[in-house]
Amino acid sequence: MHVFVTGGTGLIGSAVVTELLGNGHTVLALARSEASAQAASAAGAEPIRGGLADLDVLRAASAQADGVIHLAFANDFSSPEALANAVAEESAALAAVGEALVGTGRPFVTCSGTPATTGRASTESDPIPADGPVGGRGRAVTGVLELASRGVRSSAVRLPRTVHHDGMGGFAGVLTGIARQSGVSGYPGDGTQRWPAVHALDAAVLFRLALEKAEAGTAWHAVADEGDQVRDIAAVIGGRLGLPVESVPVETYGPLGVIFAADQPSSSAHTRRVLGWSPRHLGLLKDLENIQP
Q1: In this structure, what CATH number is given to the domain that contains residue 29?
Q2: pLDDT for position 49
C-alpha cells in the first residue's frame, strides 16, 4: 500500500515508517517543518509539507493514499488550555481525513490511549473515556471507529501510558524530565499505581498489522507490560540519575496529574490472539536502564 502517515518523524512514527517500508509499503509522511521533511526523506518516505491544522493538505494526501495511519499530536501539556487546543486541532484533523476516505473501503488507523478500569486490567472491549483532561481525544477516536458504517475500514491502536525506546518516551519520559529539573525522582501518591508500557518497535508492528488486516470499527491494545508500579519506574530513573526517589504532589504533573495518579493496567490478550501480535523488545524497566545520567 501507499500509506499516508501523520507524525511520521516522532518516537513512534519513525518506527512505524521503518516498519511499513520494511514490509513492502511506501509512505507519504506529513512534515510540518523542513527538518521533519528531511528526516522523512532520509528514512525513505516521501514528505508532504503541512501540519494537523492544514485540513486541505490532509484531505488531499488521504485521497491519494491506499491507507492512512494517524500519529501526530501537539503534545502540549503545559496548561489545560494548551491541551484543549491540541485536542481540538487533532479532532478537526481526524474528521477531515475521515471525510476524505468515506466510501473507499480503505484502512484508517488512528491512535488513542488504553482506558482505565476499576480493579482489573482494561481490555479491548472497554470503552475509552469521553470526559476528563483528554476526553476530547476519546470522542474523536470514537468518531473514527464509527466511520466503519460509512465505508471506511477504521481501527484504533490504543497505546499504553509509556511507549519507550532507548529509555525515552511516554509518561516515564515525563518522570525522567521532571526528575532532571527538580533533583528528585518523584511519583504521585504511594506509587503502587500501575502503568502499562510497550517498546516503540513493537507498537510499530501492531500499527502495520492493523493497517493490513484489522476489521472495520475495531480497537487493539499495544500493551507489552500490563502494568509496572510507578514507584518502581521512579526507582530505576532515580538510580540512573543518582537522585533520591520520593512521593511528590500530584500537582507536580499539571493537567496530567489526575491521570498520573490513577491505577491503569491493561491487557493485550485479544490483540495478540486475533492479530498475531507478539512483542519481543525490552520491557520498560529494562529499557529505562538506557537513560543517560
Answers
A1: 3.40.50.720
A2: 97
HEC readout, 71-133: CCCCCCCCCHHHHHHHHHHHHHHHHHHHHHHCCCCCEEEEEEECCCCCCCCECCCCCCCCCCC
Contact 22, 208 (CB under 8 A): no
Alpha carbons 190 and 102: distance in angstroms, whole number = 47
Whether residue 13 contacts residue 73, with contact meaning beta carbons closer than 8 Å, is answered with: no
DSSP codes of every residue in 77-94: -SSHHHHHHHHHHHHHHH
Q: Are residues 91 and 47 in the same domain?
A: yes
- Looking at this protein, which amino acid is placed at residue 288? L
Question: What is the SS3 assignment for 246?
Answer: strand
Residue 133: predicted pLDDT: 73
Cβ atoms 225, 165 nearer than 8 A: no
